[in-house]
């Protein structure tokens, strides 16, 4: 499905990414976790970005949100030279099989992210939060530095109100005020977030994370069929 959308806003999410909201001109059905190809209007080059909002919200607001990484030059690349509000962009999709079930059998969910890999998981936890209020939802999130946690205010607020359990860790902390963990995501961070073998786990982020975390989850006792992974790392143009 190809359609032209309008940039509604593009605001910094972290020092190396933008949260971009696109207004749709027609229906764009998708499943939580899927992505879309985005590029400048009438230009051939498009790149995939995970949709960072739940399907119900998207349908209600006729809009999509994306976490778009920036290269060393501070831009997304030549495929998106202009993200000024009002700019037209072409949108194609949805694509991808890394999805959250519309009617899950499970009642416990764990989302593990590294860097911009948080984007598809945001769509998933939005959908999970709209489900049964008794569901247990945990998010374990790794970033390089404390200022690189996208959606941190949202996640912290959800944790404060008891809607989710939220664990953060940084891999390159150089000192200063920081109340989260340090180092890569390890088994000690994952075990408290898992509620037994029936927990459905989603892991998305850089190569090392999606290779290491599933093994730790299996050691904890999660069956392989309840571990879903997707490697998702921004590559500069």
Helix and strand topology:
Elements: E1 2-14, E2 17-23, E3 35-40, E4 47-50, H1 55-61, E5 63-69, E6 88-95, E7 108-114, H2 118-129, E8 136-143, H3 152-160, E9 165-170, E10 181-182, H4 187-190, E11 200-205, H5 207-220, E12 227-231
Parallel strand pairs: 7-8, 7-11, 8-9, 9-10, 11-12
Antiparallel strand pairs: 1-2, 1-6, 2-5, 3-4, 3-6
Question: What can you see in these coordinates?
Answer:
With 237 residues, this protein is of the alpha/beta class. It has 2 domains: 2-95, Translation factors (Elongation Factor Tu (Ef-tu), domain 3, Beta Barrel), CATH 2.40.30; 108-231, Rossmann fold (3-Layer(aba) Sandwich), CATH 3.40.50.80. It is built from 5 helices and 12 strands. The chain has helices at 55-61, 118-129, 152-160, 187-190, 207-220; strands spanning 2-14, 17-23, 35-40, 47-50, 63-69, 88-95, 108-114, 136-143, 165-170, 181-182, 200-205, 227-231. Strands 4-3-6-1-2-5 form a 6-stranded antiparallel beta sheet. A 6-stranded parallel beta sheet has the order 10-9-8-7-11-12, sandwiched between helices. The two termini are 25 Å apart. 40% of the residues are buried. Residues 233-237 have low confidence and may be disordered.
């Amino acid at each position: 499905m190809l359609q032209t959308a309008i940039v509604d806003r593009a605001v910094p999410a972290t020092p190396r990414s933008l949260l971009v909201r696109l207004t749709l001109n027609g229906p764009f059905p998708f499943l939580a976790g899927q992505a879309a190809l985005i590029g400048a209007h009438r230009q051939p080059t498009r790149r995939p970005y995970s949709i960072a909002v739940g399907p119900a919200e998207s349908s209600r607001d006729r809009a999509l949100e994306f976490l778009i990484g920036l290269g060393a030059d501070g831009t997304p690349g030549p495929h998106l030279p202009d993200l000024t509000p009002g700019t037209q962009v072409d949108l194609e999709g949805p694509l991808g099989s890394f999805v959250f079930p519309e009617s899950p059998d499970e009642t416990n969910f764990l989302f593990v992210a590294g860097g911009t890999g948080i984007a598809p998981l945001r769509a998933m936890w939005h959908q999970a939060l709209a489900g049964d209020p008794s569901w247990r939802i945990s998010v374990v999130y790794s970033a390089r530095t404390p200022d690189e946690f996208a959606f941190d205010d949202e996640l912290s607020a959800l944790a404060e109100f008891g809607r989710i359990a939220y664990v953060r860790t940084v891999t390159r902390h150089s000192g200063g005020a920081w109340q989260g963990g340090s180092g890569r995501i390890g088994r000690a961070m994952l075990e408290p977030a898992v509620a037994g073998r029936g927990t459905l786990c989603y892991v998305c982020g850089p190569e090392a994370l999606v290779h290491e975390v599933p093994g730790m989850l299996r050691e904890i006792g999660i069956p392989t069929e309840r571990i879903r992974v997707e490697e998702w790392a921004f590559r500069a143009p």
